[in-house]
Write a structure and sequence with these properties.
Shape: flat
Strand content: 35-45%
Largest sheet: 6 strands, mixed
Distance between the termini: 105 Å
Helix content: under 10%
Oligomer: single chain
Radius of gyration: 50 Å
Number of domains: 6
């Protein structure tokens, strides 16, 4: 479809041509000027394709008799229309209503023209990506999709009701090179592409855009709804409480907008007001404003830090203006009105209000502790996790001062840290002085600087950790006695009405250690322990070295100093011979902490032991073994009676404990593979971890790995008890048996068996056997015999 002017022109020409058929040779004045090439869309050429609705120009017609007639015939030779060329030999040919292949010929002798051409219908469709644009939002553009079977062409765009004029449309589509022509704008487009318009300068409303191809009959309309939704802004807290001098954090939540305007204080009622804009830069819908109550009201222009800033570096907070306070004045400790709205204009109505409650500040306490000198701190939480409550500080460790004081965050921010605030301000001081008076000499005062002191801030909790590296202190000695650290907030800072002081003391001591006389035996799990002056958390190395050339060994373990200075580590002496002398040294950073090495002797190895009194859970699924001692670690395995009745050492296994470290264990729970449903005898047995994988492999290896512990007589270490399960509700009856079993590679011999029925008394029964496992009954004797026999057979193999 063409523009209104061109539509009229086309209709006029068509009517003129139709009228000429009936009027014959009637001539019109000025007809020669009608066939103007400028008025045509294309020149007619043989073999070309044109689009329905285009006006074609052809010349070279016979000029005799006022103009030559020409015909347009379809591909079957049928006459479609006949027209008369202008007297100057030219013609404007309308393609409206044509579709297909055609030939233009002259109907009489003259020019003898014959031009073949095709007229195609242009498909044309325009759609909007969304159809709705918030012109108050951060994206005021709309994308239109051009769908057509034609390549490049020009479209005329107008608003159907004239509610958007051509100049406004030209601005909206300026990025597409739009040009205003009459009531339309013309835009060069191509099929299968898009055009984009920016409607930020057009009033909100519902519009229909007419989009017409400039030179064909193709046209479409597209609806566009422009809204002005400025979004919403609100505070996440109705009351924000902070101390005067600190940095208050006020969070604004934005929806359908990425900008807001905030006021802190109301000048009329509060005597102070700050106006700022916030921008959500990362799209998370929130901006946290940091408001420095120490610098607020300072309009001198010589601030080193901020009055307001964004907590998130992706966001932005900009101070528009603030009212001034008098010199050397802080904001009063009172409540301040706050308001917020979307957009950037603080004069518009607020969408939410809140209150900033500023309380008076205070300097509360200074306490001194210590932390390992090997620690590497990056923030306050690192210090908190490492500090111990001990003001005796080993040389080389950190002296940690924990300062509890509110209202210092603002001055710290202004000076790029509290340490600089102390160094630069002069009205906040930190001194460390020797307590002992020295005759005719001044007290020592330590110099704190960036080379030995770092302050880590936890402003959320009004805590500051002043960490001093004792190794970097000059002019201090372990013989100096105690020192007192004093922090003073002077009244000249405007943070205090009078001087505020807090202090605490510490002693510098030598890094030392002592070791308790070691009592170890030739087993694993032997503990050596001691005390150290190092800070809790410090790592020391305990070195155990044999003094015997016949049985040399060197053992080392790392140990961590605990609160109170204690440390310990377990050693494996199972390969050491009884009676071997050794020494113990404690080292830190390659240096010994002992005055002299501590001597010790390897004692006699304690054998494995097990004690079971019949403990089992009500549902028969968990057995509790009273006591177990495993010299080298291992497992407790519970067997049933088939170990005896069927000689089944593997199938009789009901369950096995988790791996147990070397040493003594109480109330060891063994989860059974299935619940017991009848009363029977249970036989817990102590097993080694012979392959050191902490997995029970006795059954899977068919007895090759994790064999039972044996005593000095090569008897398996075990115990037994009769247990009752079900509804009897009676106490479990426990039967124990004394058993002595010897095992050799040749044979297995039972030397003596005595059965004793346990009673509610002291458990003593008549027995002629003074050796073996005390308290064993007949069934256990047989079990021990079988276990020993199995072990003997394996040794023979």
């Amino acid at each position: 479809m063409t523009s209104n002017t061109e539509k009229f022109r086309g209709l006029f020409l068509a009517a003129l041509m139709v009228f000429s058929v009936f009027a014959g040779s009637v001539a019109f004045a000025g007809s020669a000027a009608a066939a103007n090439q400028v008025d045509a869309d294309e020149n007619l050429n043989n073999g070309e394709t044109y689009w329905q609705g285009q006006v074609l120009y052809e010349d070279g017609f016979n000029t005799a008799n006022g103009g030559e007639d020409y015909q347009i015939r379809d591909e079957d030779g049928n006459l479609v229309r006949e027209r008369t060329a202008d007297s100057d030999g030219s013609a404007l040919i309308s393609t409206s209503g044509l579709e297909g292949d055609y030939t233009l010929t002259t109907s009489s002798s003259g020019s003898n023209k014959s031009v073949d051409f095709e007229v195609a219908v242009q498909d044309f469709n325009v759609t909007a990506d969304d159809g709705e644009v918030n012109i108050a939002g951060d994206n005021t553009n709309e994308t239109f999709n051009i769908d057509s079977n034609r390549g490049s062409f020009t479209v005329n765009v107008s608003e159907a009701d004239g509610d958007i004029d051509a100049s406004e449309l030209e601005t909206a589509f300026a990025g597409e090179g739009a040009t205003a022509v009459g009531d339309n704008v013309q835009i060069q487009v191509s099929g299968g592409t898009t055009i984009e318009g920016n409607f930020s300068q057009i009033s909100a409303g519902e519009y229909t855009l007419d989009v017409e191809v400039n030179d064909t009959d193709a046209a479409d309309t597209v609806d566009l709804n422009l809204t002005r939704d400025t979004g919403e802004a609100e505070f996440t807290q109705s009351v924000v409480t902070e101390n005067v001098g600190d940095v208050a954090e006020v969070t604004v939540e934005l929806s359908n907008s990425d900008q807001g305007a905030i006021t802190i204080g109301d000048f009329e009622s509060d005597g102070y007001q700050a106006n700022a804009t916030v921008t959500d830069g990362d799209g998370d819908g929130e901006v946290t404003v940091r408001f420095n109550t120490y610098t607020a009201g300072n309009t001198s222009g010589n601030l080193n830090s901020f009055v307001v800033e964004a907590a998130d570096s992706d966001d932005d907070v900009t101070l528009q203006n603030q009212s001034a306070l008098s010199a050397n004045a802080l904001l009063a400790n009172t409540t301040y009105d706050m308001s917020v709205r979307s957009g950037t204009d603080v004069s518009t109505d607020a969408s939410d209000v809140a209150t900033l409650n500023l309380r008076s500040r205070s300097t509360d306490e200074l306490t001194i502790g210590t932390a390992p000198g090997s620690e590497d701190f990056s923030e306050a939480s690192d210090v908190v996790s490492a500090i111990s409550d001990d003001n005796s500080v080993a040389e080389g460790d950190y002296i940690v001062h924990e300062l509890d004081a509110s209202g210092l965050a603002g001055i710290a921010a202004e000076n790029d840290g509290l340490f600089n605030a102390i160094a630069n301000n002069g009205n906040i001081t930190l001194t460390v002085e020797q307590d002992r008076q020295r005759p005719n000499r001044p007290q020592k005062e330590l110099t704190l600087g960036s080379q030995n002191t770092t302050i880590y801030s936890d402003t959320a909790n009004d805590s500051y950790y002043i960490v001093v590296d004792s190794e970097q202190l000059n002019n201090i000695d372990v013989d100096d006695g105690s020192y007192t650290t004093t922090l003073t907030v002077g009244e000249e800072t405007v943070l205090a009405s009078s001087d505020e002081e807090v202090s605490d003391s510490f002693n510098l001591v030598e890094p030392t250690a002592t070791v308790q006389p070691p009592e170890v035996e030739a087993n694993a799990g032997q503990t050596i322990q001691g005390q150290s002056s190092l800070a809790a958390g410090s790592q020391v190395t305990i070195r155990v070295q044999s003094q015997s050339s016949a049985n040399p060994f060197l053992l080392e373990q790392r140990a961590t100093v605990q609160d109170g200075g204690s440390f310990s580590a377990d050693f494996d002496f199972s390969e050491a011979e009884e009676g071997t002398n050794f020494t113990v040294d404690v080292r830190e950073s390659g240096s010994s902490l002992l005055d002299e090495a501590q001597a010790g002797t390897v004692g006699e190895a304690q054998p494995a032991q097990i004690s079971y009194s019949g403990g089992i859970s009500d549902d028969g699924t968990v057995v509790t073994v009273d006591e177990v001692f495993l010299p080298n670690g291992g497992f407790v395995t519970v067997h049933d009676e088939t170990l005896v009745s069927e000689d089944d050492a593997f199938g009789s296994v009901l369950g096995t404990s988790e791996y147990l470290e070397a040493g003594q264990h109480s109330d060891v729970q063994v989860e059974l593979d299935g619940a017991l449903n009848e009363s029977q005898t249970l036989i817990p047995m102590a097993h080694q971890d012979t392959n050191d994988n902490q997995e029970y492999d006795f059954v899977d290896s068919e007895g090759e790995e994790d064999v039972p512990y044996t005593d000095e007589n090569d008897e398996a270490v075990l115990d037994s008890a009769d247990v009752e399960v079900g509804d009897s509700g009676e106490d479990n009856e426990t039967t124990t048996e004394d058993t002595t079993t010897e095992t050799t590679t040749e044979e297995t011999t039972t030397e003596e068996t005595t059965t004793t029925e346990a009673t509610d008394g002291d458990g003593d029964g008549d027995s002629d056997n003074d050796g073996g496992q005390p308290g064993f009954g007949i069934s256990v004797a047989i079990v021990a015999l079988i276990a020993a026999a199995l072990l003997a057979l394996r040794r023979q193999d």
